[in-house]
Amino acid sequence: MIALSVNVNKVALLRNSRDTVVPSVVDYALRCINYGAHGITVHPRPDQRHIRVDDCHDLKQALSVELNIEGNPFSPAMPSTRQGVSDYPGFMALVDAIRPAQCTLVPDANDQLTSDHGFDLERDAHILRPVLKQLKDWGVRSSVFVDPNPNTVALAADLGADRVELYTESYAREFEQGRGDQSLELFSRTAEAAHQAGLQINAGHDLNLDNLTLFSGLPHLAEVSIGHALTADALYLGLEQTLGRYLAALQNN
Predict the structure, then answer these.
(1) 49, 86, 177, 226: which has the highest count of C-beta atoms within 10 A?
(2) Which candidate in 38, 50, 70, 223 is catalytic?
(3) Hey, what CATH topology would domain 3-250 get?
(4) What's the pLDDT band for 49 if we cut at 50, 70, 90?
(5) Percent of the chain scored above 70 by pLDDT?
(6) 3-class secondary structure, 55
């Protein structure tokens, strides 16, 4: 079974547009779980423009499923600019305090709108290895965000990662142009190489109801993380029907 982890960042972004606690990130997450989601993902950034430090603590206390915290492990501490919002302690300090089930390492800069590339496993090996060891010492399952590349993905296992998360924007763009099958071939070869190295495979970014059914045929796929498209679909379809459709798309293979 392919697990669906719902990214709740966009719900936090909506809440943060006003000085309010509505919509509740925790309530939304619990509703997703009630409708069948297998996990919840958050991507707290230092400016806390969507998910906040307190959200991470609240979700850890409330959830009965896996919490996945993703972000740049080298993001430093940053003071909050909003009254009543806790300071950002730095990514790894936050992970240490929360101890989520999974931590996904993503090389995003503070000023990026969203993630747009994976780690270069060859170039970044020396900085990733101690981070992955620290996560292992904390008992936190690790995943590294990577671009599809069957020639280098196995390096993640040598560095100590438990999983890789395949960055799927290129697949989504190719799917829109009618080339989804061709794009999936590269992802499939990458997934096979990762599996042979002993890694589990996650995937995420721009997956939606149109392209997910095809992508769910990826060999050895363990988990997908979806937020933006799922949240947008829920505006039209309602959350329960939306979760049902995403779960059905994952079970078609």
Answers:
(1) 226
(2) 70
(3) TIM Barrel (3.20.20)
(4) very high
(5) 97
(6) helix
